[in-house]
Design goal:
heterodimer; A: about 350 residues; 14 helices; B: about 280 residues; alpha/beta; six-stranded mixed sheet; four-stranded antiparallel sheet; 11 helices; about 25% strand
Chain lengths: ~350, ~280
């Protein structure tokens, strides 16, 4: 299925140890973060009651189910302290971190932010929320955001760049001018405007980012198509009776994938860092949502509580470093010019 | 004499770019008969490749490039055909091989899959595509075809690449093969092999060939008819034997003079002087 060339490039990527290991670590962290609810949560992983086992992190259980009065979700921490619950043979197994990123822990002595302790391995922020839980959930949000952003904008950029490069002439000229005008729109204003109309949520932010991010990809793909459409093998394919679509998909596209693959990790980097920047400025995701930018902002405001800043900066640094290593390796492995 | 398979009349090709018009071909007429080889000879820029490309309309679209005249292939006017019909003819009835075999093959696919693509496109009735690939590769003298199917273009030598290109062109048994300087990028011994191969395949597959070259040397004993092009015009045409033996036009004479001969020492190649150019242009 894969050509020998692709296999060779993949092998070369694997031989670049730093990139290969970074890819594994980042993927592992990302997959782990998909199970954030099972790592940091107010709710127990497992709950035994009346001989039956329940999974509160996956499913909603009302208070009444465990002998309470209300139809709302059970407050498991209170329940754990309730002797009546234990009298019914109730037991709970909590995740490694017993706090979710939204709940404030007011049982700690003193005023928040609280310093790191056994209860809160990375301390709490100024609303007494667990920093570790917020970093973990924020990592997941950031990764999902930039993955979605990179995939969508790569596909959009690919299609529009391909149209420009392949059609050339007036189509190219017209689209290029429109793109120039489009890219002259101030991104930050558009974000603020859109967010004020449609709300500061994941989908709106993703849309606005995508509206601008595809431009860079389209430039690369346009250039690739302009270069490749005049190659002899494309003419030769036309001379054997291939249609335009066939030429685009089976002749030019496989030859123009290199910049797409090489740019992908760097797209992730810009995705994460720009979302963080936006959150830092307060124009990103709406406040209770855990995000690194918001943590950084808190860290700046609470310099006397360095654990907030240090942990969020470290997390950001490590993620971006890993992604850079992957990108660097991918560029070295897939760059055809480096082959000679 | 039978009706020609391809008849070109008053072909004019103009290119427009940056407000300037370049007349690449200025009203030429020629015809190609079944199972004959027509050689188109001329220097770089004489319009021979453009003529070849225009036959299946491979040149850029209308505003950039204008083609006038008539190109008649089997009772069809190629200049008025729809794109769909044109695509059916390209590769199936009229196939091309180009000068640079190395760049004419797509670098990311194995040669087997590239030949397969042509077969699937034009001969969907064939079920055992692999056997067909082996057959055409065998036809062009690649005998360990089973092994070569997996090879990528860069793993083959120039001569082998050109054989693969010929195999691709012949996969659909075209009626006309247009070879645009098929041997220019190859060294002399390989040139001879490729020409011999074309000669052999012409009789085997009963096709006509248009051979475009600037080298009179390779058409001897291969071409049936010759047209000599210079600056977009045909300056001389006729049976190959006659033109080679007794060239009438000073430009043809000069081109023939340029073939190196064993035992003849020449300090300089023959060139055409400015006054002669003027004369040719005026005629």
């Amino acid at each position: 299925m894969f050509s020998k060339l692709t296999i060779r490039q993949f092998k070369r990527f694997r031989s670049i140890k730093r990139a290969w290991i970074s890819l594994w670590i980042l993927s592992a962290l990302f997959i782990l973060s998909l199970f954030s609810e099972q790592i940091a949560n107010d709710k127990p992983l497992l709950l035994g009651y009346n001989g039956a086992i329940h999974f509160p992190t996956l499913k909603f259980y009302s208070d009444q189910k465990f002998g309470g009065l209300y139809k709302t979700e059970a407050d498991y921490k209170k329940l754990d302290e309730d002797p009546a619950f234990h009298a019914q043979g109730g037991w709970m197994l909590f995740p490694p971190v017993r706090f979710d990123p939204y709940s404030s822990d007011w049982s700690e002595p003193g005023a928040p932010p609280h310093a790191p302790s056994l209860r809160h391995p990375l301390g709490t922020d100024n609303a007494a929320r667990d920093v570790f839980a917020r970093i973990l959930y924020g990592f997941r949000t950031g990764m999902l955001f930039s993955l979605a952003l990179t995939v969508i904008s790569t596909i959009t950029g690919f299609i529009l760049g391909a149209v420009q490069g392949y059609a050339g002439r007036y189509v190219d000229l017209a689209m290029q001018r429109i793109i120039e005008m489009w890219s002259a729109l101030p991104f930050l204003y558009v974000v603020i405007l859109m967010a004020s109309i449609y709300g500061q949520n994941f989908a709106v932010l993703l849309l606005v980012f995508c509206m601008f991010r595809w431009i860079a990809t389209s430039y690369y793909i346009r250039a690739e198509f302009l270069r490749l459409k005049n190659q002899t093998f494309v003419h030769a394919s036309k001379a054997t009776g291939s249609s335009h679509l066939r030429i685009i998909f089976s002749q030019i596209l496989p030859n123009s994938l290199n910049p797409v693959i090489t740019l992908f990790p760097f797209g992730l980097i810009t995705g994460i860092s720009s979302l963080t920047a936006l959150d830092f400025l307060g124009f990103g995701l709406a406040p209770p949502e855990p995000s690194w930018g918001e943590l950084l902002q808190q860290g700046l405001q609470n310099l006397t509580a360095p654990w907030v800043a240090i942990s969020s900066v470290t997390a950001l640094f490590i993620t971006l470093l890993l992604a850079s290593f992957i990108g660097e390796g991918a560029r070295a492995a897939f760059d055809t010019k480096a082959e000679e | 004499m039978s009706e020609p398979i391809l008849k070109v009349e008053n072909l004019e090709i103009n290119f427009h770019a940056d407000g300037q018009t370049t007349e690449a071909v200025k009203g030429i007429s020629f015809s190609l008969h079944e199972e004959k080889v027509l050689a188109v000879v001329g220097e770089s820029g004489s319009g021979k490749s453009v003529t070849a490309m225009s036959i299946t309309r491979l040149l850029p679209e209308a505003p950039v490039c204008q083609v006038r005249g008539s190109i008649n292939f089997m009772q069809q006017d190629m200049l008025t055909l729809k794109n769909r019909q044109l695509r059916d003819i390209r590769g199936k009835d009229i196939a091309y091989i180009f000068q640079e075999p190395g760049t004419s093959l797509n670098p990311v696919f194995s040669i087997g899959s590239q030949i397969a693509e042509v077969i699937k496109l034009h001969r969907p009735e064939i079920t055992d595509v692999k056997a067909e690939i082996v057959r055409v590769l065998d036809l062009v003298g690649i005998h360990d075809a089973e092994k070569r199917i997996q090879a990528y273009p860069h793993e083959l030598s120039g001569g082998m690449q050109q054989r693969v290109m010929i195999a691709m062109a012949l996969a659909c048994h075209p009626k006309i093969l247009i070879a645009d300087e098929p041997t220019t990028a190859l060294d002399v011994t390989i040139q001879k092999q490729i020409i011999d191969l074309l000669k052999e395949l012409k009789t085997k597959l009963k096709m006509s060939i248009i051979l475009i070259t600037h080298n009179f040397g390779i058409i001897k004993g291969f071409a049936d008819d010759v047209i000599v092009m210079f600056r977009g015009k045909i300056v001389e045409s006729g049976p190959a034997e006659k033109v080679l033996q007794n060239p009438q036009h000073p430009y043809t004479q000069a081109l023939i003079e340029c073939i190196p001969r064993l035992g003849v020492r020449k300090e300089r190649l023959t060139t055409i002087q400015h006054e002669e150019l003027e004369k040719i242009n005026a005629s």
